[in-house]
From TrEMBL:
The lineage of its organism: Bacteria, Pseudomonadati, Pseudomonadota, Betaproteobacteria, Nitrosomonadales. It comes from Nitrosomonas mobilis. This is Haem-binding uptake Tiki superfamily ChaN domain-containing protein. Gene3D superfamilies: 3.40.50.11550.
């Protein structure tokens, strides 16, 4: 009887130790990741994190293949998770790769196994997937989802991504990293046939959606960032010069209902 009780006690203590070990590992992993990124002020993350709430979708836009964009996105995730809150992270990867993504988290596949569009794929992006998978493995509160449309999906990409995101809306907020155009909640198209982006479709469906495109002043570098509020005149100029100019759309006079803010990258 005494030996059985002793074994049960040892097993219980072992389980507690394993759980504690996981939490300690997760803390140092997240803390190390956060402090390794020194190219931006913590104020930028605070603006975004305060809007990540239950039943909401937050989109951080990016110009693909910018390592600093990846680092910034990871830092927002890390800082948010330090609050002991849960999060769904959505990535611009074909949803037919979800099984592989899950297997990477479980340690059954490696990041080299996942197929990613050449438009998006780069080393920093795959490193991020690997880092997030490690975090998700030791933290049940972090979930990774692939939301893009694969070649076999006969639906516009933005419509498909909207569908996947809408299905995930719950008490656990969603944070997505998508191309900048997908982050525009409103576009004043100058032709009748419109092709709304993810944020615009979600807004039309009355989802709580917050968006923050990242813009580069000088595309040759981006080692310092600044948060530009959407109610500033400067924000209108930045959006018109860098995003509207690429569309068949009229320029904005105000962007408060288009984005929630801009992460402006520049050379220090």
């Amino acid at each position: 009887m005494g030996m059985a009780t002793s074994k049960k006690k040892m097993k219980s203590e072992c389980s507690i130790f394993v759980a504690l070990k996981k939490r300690i590992y997760f803390f140092f992993f997240v803390t190390g990741l956060f402090f390794s990124n020194s190219v931006y002020s913590g104020e930028v993350q605070k603006w975004i994190i305060k809007g990540i709430e239950p039943n909401s979708i937050t989109i951080i836009g990016e110009h693909h293949k910018r390592p600093e964009s990846i680092q910034f996105f990871q830092s927002v995730i890390s800082k948010y998770l330090q609050q002991d809150k849960c999060l769904v992270v959505a990535l611009e990867i074909a949803s037919n790769q979800q099984m592989i993504l899950d297997e990477i988290v479980e340690g059954k596949s490696t990041v080299s196994d996942i197929k990613i569009s050449s438009i998006i794929d780069h080393t920093a992006f795959r490193v991020m997937i690997n880092d997030l998978a490690k975090m998700a493995k030791v933290n049940d509160c972090l979930k990774l989802i692939a939301i893009d449309a694969g070649m076999e999906i006969d639906v516009r990409r933005d419509e498909w991504m909207t569908k996947i995101l809408a299905e995930q809306v719950s008490q656990v907020p969603i944070l997505a990293l998508l191309g900048n155009m997908h982050s525009l909640r409103k576009v004043d198209w100058n032709f009748k046939k419109t092709a709304p982006y993810v944020a615009e479709i979600l807004a039309s469906l009355n989802h709580t959606i917050r968006t923050y495109p990242q813009i580069w002043v000088d595309k040759t570098c981006g080692n310092q960032s600044e948060f530009i509020r959407s109610d500033r005149k400067k924000a209108v100029e930045i959006i018109n010069n860098n995003l509207t100019s690429l569309l068949n759309a009229y320029e904005y006079k105000t962007v408060s209902d288009v984005v929630d803010g801009i992460i402006l990258w520049k050379c220090s």
